[in-house]
Amino acid sequence: MRPPRLLILSPVASHPTRQGNAARIVALAEGLMARGIACEFLYHTAEGMTAEEEAAMRAAWPVFHVNHAERRPEPRFPGLWGLDDWCPASLVARVAALHRARRYDAVLVNYVWLGGVLAGLDDQPPLRIIDTHDLFGDRRAVAEQAGLDPSWYFTSVAEESRGLPRADLVLAIQEGEAGALAARGARQVLVVGHAPPPRLLAGPALPPPRAAFGVLASHNPWNLDAVRALDTAIAAAGPLDWLLAGSVVGRIDAEHALRSRPQWLGIVPAVAAFYDAVGCVLVPNTGGTGLKIKAVEALMSGRPVLGTAHGFAGLPAEHPVHAAADAPALAALARRHAADAAFRAEVAAATRRLALRVAADVAVQQDTLAAAILAGRRVAAL
Predict the structure, then answer these.
(1) Burial letters for 184-195: b for 16+ Cβ neighbours within 10 Å, e otherwise?
(2) Nearest residue to 212 (alpha-carbon basis) of 294, 282, 283, 280
């Protein structure tokens, strides 16, 4: 008997894994494959595809499919996207054809705005799953309230509410979003958080760091705003040995644009290269939506972590070192960490406790999701 077969549809490249959303997709798939689910990956090239990305994804996935995206249309409504604006009919047809040929036990769509493919699965339909990643209804308003230009996809609550019932099961990435998804029409909601394999439990000892502190961030507006706020806070109180890595570096005009003069690491081939380079990870976010994937990855890295309350939103953080109010408060924690050995030990212990709790919680959640796919039916009770 063949193992249960899952098709994962994504509009972002999974490999090389350089963004939080890609890390989420990969970690969830790895968790399901470890539980006996055969995962196939369909990349809808909404953001293009380089030769490097194609080679990496073909090497990473047991079965890899590509759907070449069409040119994106204009928004359906003034000032916002319609639910299916980014889900072309050609993609709906491609997924339906793959299902007829491969007979999936489940199809998992990343993001509600690709959920139109689920409506096209009327031939012996599989278990239909949407991994939401975030709330997209009124996302533009959230960004504008923070003084940022909204980026990527955003829509209205009404449009999002039309899309959620297309799935038999909707995944929330954090507990705080589960109620909103249910209120917006999801039939059944399961919280499945994010947790890559904990590096703190296995592997070689971490090397001596090249910088006392570090920030790893992709190039979205929320991260850029957080990095600039942290830079201002550090510069106001004097030098601090810190390092900046990730694609956010490409959005900063030049190294001298940051007054606090961090070391410049840029894009790393794998996140482990960043964690090897820093003694303590900083998570400076004070805005944005959804779970901060980089906060979870930092917890699992084996390095101590300091962060803001917003950066740890959706995580069961209990210690004040994971709940700084803003960038100046986070910078103050970093200075105390640099000066006080006892505080460093306290931070390390608090980070380890939180990491183990998150890893345990996510393991149970992945067990529940795998059981639903293994059964090939709707979840009776969550």
Answers:
(1) bbbebbbbbbbb
(2) 280
Contact status, residue 309 vs residue 321, Cβ threshold 8 Å: no
Neighbours of 211 (CB within 10 A): 18
Residue 358: CB atoms within 10 Å: 22
**Residues in contact with 103: Cβ distance below 8 Å, sequence separation at least 6, in sequence order:** 5, 124
User: Could you read off the pLDDT of 244-285 as tens digits, one per residue?
Assistant: 998 888 777 544 478 999 998 888 888 889 999 999 999 999
CB 207 within 8 A of CB 376: no
Residue 381 has pLDDT above 50, yes or no: no
Helices (H), the chain: 20-33, 51-60, 89-102, 116-119, 139-145, 157-163, 175-183, 221-237, 271-277, 293-300, 327-339, 341-375
Summarize the chain as % helix, strand, coil (round to 5): 45, 15, 40
Report phi then psi at 71, rounded to 5. -65, 135
Short-list 183, 153, 179, CA closest to 165: 183
Query: In a 10 Å sphere around its CB, with 0-12 CB exposed, 13-18 middle and 19+ buried, how is residue 332 labelled?
Result: middle
- Mean pLDDT on 66-86: 89
In angstroms, the CA 357 to CA 355 distance is 5
Q: What tens digit of pLDDT does each residue of 24-43 get?
A: 999 999 999 999 999 999 99
CA distance 355 to 315: 10
What does the pLDDT look like over 118-171, one tens digit per residue?
998 977 889 999 999 988 877 766 655 655 566 678 888 999 999 999 999 999
Tokens 């939080």 belong to 20
Question: What are the structure tokens assigned to 188, written together?
Answer: 């059944």
Domains delineated in the chain:
5-192 (3.40.50.2000), 199-359 (3.40.50.2000)
What secondary structure letter does DSSP report for 248? G
Structure tokens at 233: 């806070």
* Separation CA 228–CA 247 (nearest Å): 14
